[in-house]
Fold each of these.
Amino acid sequence: MPYSSIDREKKILELLQTQGSASIQELAEAFGVSNMTVHRDLNKLEQSGQIQKKHGGVTLAEKPSSVVGEYTCVMCNKPVSERTVFIVQLESGEQKRACCAHCGLMIQSQTKDAWQSLAVDYLHGHMVSANQAIYLIGSELSICCVPSVLSFGAQKEAEKFKKGFGGDLFTMEEAIVHLHGMMHAQKQGA
Ligand SMILES: [Zn+2]
Ligand SMILES: [Zn+2]
């Protein structure tokens, strides 16, 4: 089955999230395309700061250094820190950056043409697929916006944080619904 380049980019990121790294040869075989095609996909992902190439292979970028820095959150205008950034990528290639998962999920819920979103794993500091991340909402750890939203790549680690710091765990879709509910309740109570 032929993949479009956008599909391949998504699959590459998914693969790297599950197995950590991959060789170009491996990716070319997985998609049934030439090494050159894989190179091109990887160049794009590397330019957007999502992956790092090493020794004929590729890993997820440890720090999204080339995609953050002078940016401010499109929701609340706070400066965006690479430790908590949340990126919503649109089908057009444009990226919306949020200061943290709290604003990120708000952007996500308002964006109809999002094709991929990335959150930072709070424990390890690397980027994970926002759709697959686990969100801890309302814990004692206040990292940025209130209620605080932490994102984790692994359910087990998220559960440990929940034990230590309270809050509740959600999938991305649940987290969006929950956040909207909390914000609404706050407005009503004030
Ligand atoms: Zn924000
Ligand atoms: Zn924030």
Note: The chain has two domains: 5-60, 86-189.
Amino acid sequence: MSDSDKGESKINKDSLGYIVFMAVAVCLVCSIIVSTAAVALKPQQQINKALDIKQNILRAAGLLPEDSNKSPDGRSIDDLFSQFEVLAVELDTGKVLSDYAVADYDPIKAARDPALSRNLTGDEDVAVLGRRENVSLVYLLANEAGQTEKVVIPVRGYGLWGTLYGYLALSGDASSTLGLGFYDQKETPGLGGEVVNPKWKAQWAGVKVYDESGTPSVALVKSRSASGSPAAEYEVDALSGATLTTRGVENLVNFWTGELGFGPYLNKLRTSS
Ligand SMILES: Cc1cc2nc3c(=O)[nH]c(=O)nc-3n(C[C@H](O)[C@H](O)[C@H](O)COP(=O)(O)O)c2cc1C
């Protein structure tokens, strides 16, 4: 048999059918590998997501350094987080819902479900959320005497390029902030992205939240009021060159501490202390 006869009996690798077959086969194999990896890695992704949430709550509350995932005294994230009591709160009333499956509850997911959330009208929706969940979570840290020392609430709102997701830590009487941190945001690094700069974040320790009438009054300003003046107590420096992100952060803080956010719940802490 000549070489050309041998070639004819084999598959013609230059034929259109062969090329299409190989392309489909390669796509199929790749998609099986990617799908298998996605399914296999899902549990680990969920563990990492839960760990990330805990780290962000701990960071906002000042229990974890900005630049490390380890506590200075070597305690694990789970150990530190176990100090918090997690409560489900009905936002409209501020009522704590006992026996709620808080470990499985995702307020952001709930906000997408019309049965578990409410629509926000244009005037109400200063944080540009569209919908707001009916129930959310609060994280309470008590001191040795059993008094609430820190309250951490999840917050979110629109900046310039997208929604910023984070946690706001408040004093036990909910009168002032202890820290604010965002774990997910799309603002421009160096401009709006400075929301994650530890130096800017440091200003959030001790900002007064409510004015005399109980209205959330945190203000992000380009030039601060005279130090020691009443207005200065509510102020945080604006992000330079990022007016829209700045406005978004101010709006989201005042939204989530207000009547349509955790206001009814936080009001109980303020009046009971
Ligand atoms: C490439 C680019 C990225 C920007 N990113 C942001 C941003 O992340 N946040 C923001 O508020 N403004 C951002 N801006 C600026 C806004 O478009 C707008 O000019 C600014 O908010 C005005 O702020 P100023 O009054 O402090 O200058 C960006 C502009 C450009 C050109």
Note: The mean pLDDT is 92.
